[in-house]
Design a protein that fits this description.
Number of helices: 3
Radius of gyration: 54 Å
Order of helices and strands: HEEHEEEEH
Strand order of the largest sheet: 1-2-6-5-4-3
Low-confidence stretches: 1-5
Helix content: 40-55%
Oligomer: single chain
Mean pLDDT: 80
Number of strands: 6
Shape: rod-shaped
Strand content: 15-25%
Number of domains: 2
Distance between the termini: 200 Å
Largest sheet: 6 strands, antiparallel
Amino acid sequence: MDHQYSRSERFEKRRKNTKTMNILIWAIIILFVVLIAFWIFGGDDEVEEEQTEQNTSVDEEDHDENEVTEDEEEQSSEQEESTTDESTEEEDNEQESEEEHVYESDEDNVVRVFERNWDPIGTEQEEPHTTQFSEGTQDREEMEQAIIYATSMSEDDIIFWRLESGGVANQVIGTVTDSAQQEIYRVYLDWIEHEGWQPKKVEELYENDQHPDYGSDDENEEEDTSEDDEE
């Protein structure tokens, strides 16, 4: 009896141990499956989260770049507008300075009169200025350059017939023609301190009134008329 009882106890104990082992094995299997599932699905979530963060970062960078680009475009546009306004203003000033006023004159020998906002010719002379008409002086050379500037005549095809005082201090009147005597001008110059001679007015003439033969035809006509009257 004792022998049988011992066998029964051993069998029961073995059965319990087997059951426990089975439970442990199933628990390990379940835990392993859970770990694998977590690794698979949890890893995907992390990847998606990383991708989402990367996409967000890229979107923010693109947004920042777009903002920078828009700011640069606005600045560039403002600079272009400013440059355009400055260019337009400069062009207007140049147009105004180059605008020429032409009108008729009551003087018999004057065809028309030209006036423009000419700039002073510039000077190498020091103040106080003294007007000098003598050939070869710096003042005379600057007068001639101012007259060439005002008339737009060629330096190689201009004859200076007379340069004289305009009747007031630092004013000069010059009479010039081209070599063919087809262009005849009287030019008025004013001296601007530290800036040189400035053309003020140009008169186009019918005849060169500084030529030695000027008026000789009229005298001949008068002599002819007088002779006719005597006859």
